[in-house]
Write a structure and sequence with these properties.
The chain has about 325 residues and is an alpha/beta fold. It contains 12 helices and 12 strands. Strand 2, helix 2 and strand 3 form a beta-alpha-beta unit. The structure holds alpha-D-ribofuranose and calcium ion.
């Protein structure tokens, strides 16, 4: 089986970091062509710093990392330091990156990569606001027919919002970008809060990372120790949802997930529900399905996969 070619578009973020590590730990299944960074959890200068820190932690200073959009298409940037800490990667003490940032803009890397590789051979994996993806689609409409699929973390329906009562953070930060992506006609698979909130890093699961007793395993446990405090306090849950690794886990083991192909539209005007993913799960409208909305996950299977792969680095 040839490895699937992907681009990870990301706003690290501790959970983004674990997703990147999972991809790097799976070279026979995933050929990570590059990492494109976007402003989201923290500003762009920190997301590009954090992505390189994680690549060097994984022993991959060769991985091309690109800076993308530093703000949403039309709105002021909303960040999430309250969850991820002021650096966006609080928890472990990791050295500042020495690997360079690529000179090309992330959007141009996405466009050029999709044009250079055979059509339908590259999968885009957005883990943050969709600003880079939407900008690439606007700048080069021809790429829509070349993307194998977009597998993204974002949105929520039954689980409702995490940054507002109705909106999930990635979609809320740039709802116009999300609207462009969901109307692009590209094949889309969504890992929403409905799934990620069933993927809780319980103490036992985090101790399994720590027990690997490797620099990566310990760093993942320390990131989670920091990252989980906000969600545990907010939800009173037995651990934080590990959002972004679900995207990579879906690529590696889709059988762990279940959902429906439905219509999803994005609220872009109402101040009350801005950024809501209006998911027609019960098919009460005649709006055409445009995404696979995943709702369930085998959480034990997910963490077994994650722990065994992280152990490889
Ligand atoms: O709502 C969760 C999402 O927002 C995750 O991708 C997390 O990293 C933040 O970007
Ligand atoms: Ca993210």
């Amino acid at each position: 089986m040839t490895a699937r070619k992907i681009i990870i578009d990301t706003d690290p973020g501790q959970d983004d970091a674990v997703a990147i590590l999972l991809a790097l730990a799976s070279p026979s299944e995933i050929d990570l062509l590059g990492i494109t960074c976007v402003a989201g959890n923290v500003p762009l200068d920190l997301t590009t710093r954090n992505a390189r820190i994680i690549c060097e932690l994984a022993g991959r200073p060769d991985m091309p990392v690109f800076a993308g959009c530093d703000r949403p298409l039309r709105r002021a940037l909303v960040t999430a330091e309250h969850v991820h800490g002021k650096t966006g990667l609080d928890g472990p003490t990791l050295p500042e990156p020495t690997m360079p940032l690529q000179s090309a803009h992330a959007v141009d890397f996405i466009i050029d990569t999709l044009r250079q590789h055979p059509a339908n051979s590259v999968t885009l994996c957005p883990l943050g606001p969709l600003t880079n993806i939407a900008t690439a689609l606007q700048k080069a409409p021809d790429i829509a027919g070349r993307i194998e699929q977009i597998v993204l973390m974002g949105g929520a329906y039954f689980e409702v919002g995490n940054i507002t009562p109705t909106a999930e953070f990635n979609i809320y930060v740039d709802p116009e970008a999300a609207d462009i992506v969901f109307k692009s006609g590209v094949k889309i698979t969504v890992l929403p809060l409905d799934v990620t909130h069933k993927a809780l890093v319980t103490a036992a699961r985090n101790d399994a990372f720590r027990a690997l007793n490797t620099p990566v395993g310990i760093a993942v446990a320390q990131m989670t120790d920091f990252f989980e405090r906000f969600d545990k306090e907010k939800y009173g849950s037995d651990g934080a949802p590990l959002h972004d690794p679900c995207v990579i886990a879906y690529l590696l083991a889709p059988q762990l997930f279940a959902g429906r192909h439905i219509n999803i539209e994005i609220e872009t005007t109402s101040p009350l529900t801005l950024g809501m993913t209006v998911a027609d799960w019960w098919r009460v409208t005649d709006r055409a399905p445009n995404a696979l909305f995943l709702r369930d996950v085998d959480a034990d299977g997910l963490f077994d996969l994650l722990t065994h792969r992280i152990a490889r680095i």
